[in-house]
Amino acid sequence: DGGITQSPKYLFRKEGQNVTLSCEQNLNHDAMYWYRQDPGQGLRLIYYSQIVNDFQKGDIAEGYSVSREKKESFPLTVTSAQKNPTAFYLCASLGQRENTEAFFGQGTRLTVV
Amino acid sequence: QKEVEQDPGPLSVPEGAIVSLNCTYSNSAFQYFMWYRQYSRKGPELLMYTYSSGNKEDGRFTAQVDKSSKYISLFIRDSQPSDSATYLCAMSVDWVQGAQKLVFGQGTRLTINP
């Protein structure tokens, strides 16, 4: 079945550590996105990528990094520079066709301990 | 001013009621309009999708887009307790005009009481 897979579902990070969140899709979608969701704040865009080897900063990119070496994969690294990383992280992909629809993964909940 | 405004609620209605959820926006370039439903601790799932203006109906759900007023709505008829979730509106500009970036509303938390 086609879809988006995020892993892990829950992630715990110690202060000062970098962690990488995985996002894989088999929908043959060109565009992929990373969002952060905090209570009462909706979804905020971190990074997005329209094609392989190209990506752009979103509204809250500081403290995060991404790569897009393959069309299917768009991993997000939360670096130690991110001061408040505890949040729910969502990956999405979007198809480049007339009936454009975005599909989301099930999310990764990151907690700093 | 945010590009997309959505009342966060919470909104609580009795089972069977008609629910109206709304978003306003400021960017006239938006062409694609979506509604997502998100259950607690889950990823959002696409509920309705509309291109440009007009209405779209799918079962108990109706999406309306009024581009002249920069206003979109989602109506839920015969609401059920299983409809209790957070509803997010999302919008984007025409794909061919450049990099596509989804813009989301804050989300409205809806509770349907049995």
User: How would you classify the helix and strand content of chain B by structural class?
Assistant: mainly beta
The coarse overall form of chain A would be globular
Shape of chain B: globular
Topology order of chain A in helix (H) and strand (E) letters: EEEEEEEEEEE
Kindly state the number of beta strands of chain B: 11
Q: How would you explain this protein's 3D organization?
A:
The complex is a heterodimer of chains A (113) and B (114). Chain A has 113 residues and is mainly beta. In chain A, 0% of the residues lie in helices and 50% in strands. Chain A is built from no helices and eleven strands. Chain A is globular. The relative contact order of chain A is 0.32. The mean pLDDT of chain A is 89. Chain B is mainly β and 114 residues long. Helices cover 0% and strands 56% of the residues of chain B. Chain B has no helices and eleven strands. In chain B, strands 2, 4, 5, 9, 10 and 11 form a six-stranded mixed beta sheet that branches. Classes of the chains: A mainly beta (113), B mainly beta (114). The interface between A and B is medium-sized, with 29 and 25 residues.
Features:
heterodimer, A: 0% helix, B: 114 residues, mainly beta
SSE topology:
The complex is a heterodimer of chains A (113) and B (114).
Chain A (H helix, E strand, L loop, with lengths): L3 E4 L2 E4 L5 E7 L5 E7 L5 E9 L2 E4 L6 E3 L9 E3 L8 E8 L7 E3 L3 E5 L1
Parallel strand pairs in A: 2-11
Antiparallel strand pairs in A: 1-3, 3-8, 4-5, 4-9, 5-6, 7-8, 9-10, 9-11
Chain B lengths: L3 E3 L4 E4 L4 E7 L4 E9 L6 E7 L2 E5 L2 E6 L4 E6 L8 E9 L9 E2 L3 E6 L1
Parallel strand pairs in B: 2-11
Antiparallel strand pairs in B: 1-3, 3-8, 4-5, 4-9, 6-7, 7-8, 9-10, 9-11
Brief account:
Chain A has strands at residues 4-7, 10-13, 19-25, 31-37, 43-51, 54-57, 64-66, 76-78, 87-94, 102-104, 108-112. Chain A has 113 residues and is mainly β. Chain B has 114 residues and is mostly beta strands.
